[in-house]
Amino acid sequence: MSGMAELLMVASERRLLRALDVQFARMVATDDQPALMLAAACVSAEAGEGHVCLPLAQFTESLLFGGRDPELARQLWMMAGEPDWQTLLPATEAVSDGSLARPLVLHQKRLYLHRMWQSEGWVAQFILKEASLAMFEPDRLRSVLDRHFGQQPDNWQKIAAAVAITRQIAVISGGPGTGKTTTVAKLLASLLELSSGNLRICLTAPTGKAAARLTESLGKALQRLDISEVEKQRFPAEATTLHRLLGAVPGSQRMRYHAGNPLHLDLLVVDEASMVDLPMMANLIAALPPQARVIFLGDRDQLASVEAGAVLGDICRCAEAGYSRQRAEELTRLTGCLIAGNEDQTAPAVRDSICLLRKSYRFDASSGIGQLALAVNAGDIRQVEQVFTAGFSDIARCSLSRREDYQHLLDSGVAGYQDYLLQLRQGGQPAQVLEAFGRFQLLCALREGPFGVMGLNERIEAALQNKRLIHRVPGVSGKWYVGRPVMIARNDSALGLFNGDIGIAMNDEEGELKVFFPLPDGTIKAVQPSRLPPHDTAFAMTVHKSQGSEFEHTLLVLPNQFTPVLTRELVYTAITRARLRLTLYADHRVFNKAVKMRTLRRSGLVERLAE
């Protein structure tokens, strides 16, 4: 083993790299290529942390491992020969400009894994494509929009619909309560009318929970629309997960639908698009028919995907320049809303396919949740403090500095979950119990430790047992009991369960313990515990796992020591999961530092959209 390989192993032992990163580096580079070995390990590690590429400007000794181990970084840098990456990398056989099949790609001074570079290129090419669409007659389109959206002069939902109807690919982003689902319902009604009903529509979301929510909320919005029963029948009955839509093959990365076998649809609506990572987005666009319309919905300020990339956020950054003057004039004619444009020739063309919804209909000036979300999103610590001290009844802040504070947290968890357990004890039906469970949720930033998912699940289970709200089932593995909530951790398309799906263990009519899951179509699926794919107890879940969900009461727990996973986007996402009430357990210094810390996902998508 070379000196570089030994040092990389040391980095792995110190958890600065993964064993996978070291293994990849040794596969790509020989022992006499220490600099290449270091570069390969680092770009692999970047992908593991959610970054799409490694900009050479940030590949320096002082920034190696985020500055966490400067002495080891110095040793690695010297072993690599204090390299000039722009000169060294193109001279190696493992690196190409993308025109050759090589494990690494150097593009515009950014180093990529070949798969990431390819996926990013496909997404950029797709977003920028100018496909010809049949343009509806402007006066008719204006009339249809007026009927569904009204004629107010400042209606961003109406503008969003006009953007989507006049573009093959559109992005609609907005925070909680801005009416994304209402907008889509009216938009689909408008498109169906304009297309005389000849439109095959599919709805999809990244997780089962998000798909179920989209199905439910769109169904409610549909009932409020002033359209005929015949027109309502043309709407899709339910949303499906991306994995189900694409036909994910169990145990592999393959999809049933791809460029050679495209999906059968004319219009695809993708909800919670901020959760869609770069590789999945590439799989999705590859499976679309050439003339299909796509509408991406989401909140650009939420957490980015768990895997690599922040596709929605990157695309929405292009909207900061505003609409082009020509596009603004077109949208003004189609909506009656006065829209300003500009002549910025350097702005990406995709800006004309984006609409940012600006008004929240759920949270107003009297909502502490809404005001706190705005303050956190702005990174304004002073405003955050003013919100907490303003006396809002829907938000509460609790300390975690004393031992009794932690017990208070556990008591709050028990109080939050006792309703569904009492319903279960009183013979409630699975649908009722599942609905009751979904009203309250404890969210964590971490997986491990006393403030993480693992520790809190164990302690809340023990507290519920002490209160005799749960008890172990005789003859069944000790982890199972009536009332146990579980979250699926790995897709199992054969069973019809996917990552993020939540079920509750209950006795069926024969008295046998089953786990009951709500499906996107509103039905309930019962599965034997032994048949479940990998899963976790779900009294506590990470903020990442909560995306696409809403709860009447959300309880957020932050660790009492700062860690890099605590970011503004994580706090904002957690806050906006709460519909009626939010309780925060955190050290105020840790909370404030998290609000100041922005998530930065390194990618080249914005630059490629501007090329």
Which labels suit this protein?
611 residues, single chain, alpha/beta, 5-stranded parallel β-sheet, 6-stranded parallel β-sheet
Instruction: Give start-end ranges of low-pLDDT stretches.
Output: none
Task: Calculate the terminal CA-CA distance, rounded to whole Å.
Answer: 43 Å
Q: Give the tally of β-strands.
A: 22
What value does the Rg take, in angstroms? 25 Å
Proportion of residues in extended strands: 5-15%
Describe the biggest sheet? Answer: 6 strands, parallel
Instruction: Report the average pLDDT across residues.
Output: 88
Major sheet strand order: 7-6-8-9-5-12
Judged by helices, strands and strand pairing, the structural class is alpha/beta
Can you tell me the overall shape?
globular
Number of helices: 24
Give the % helix: 40-55%
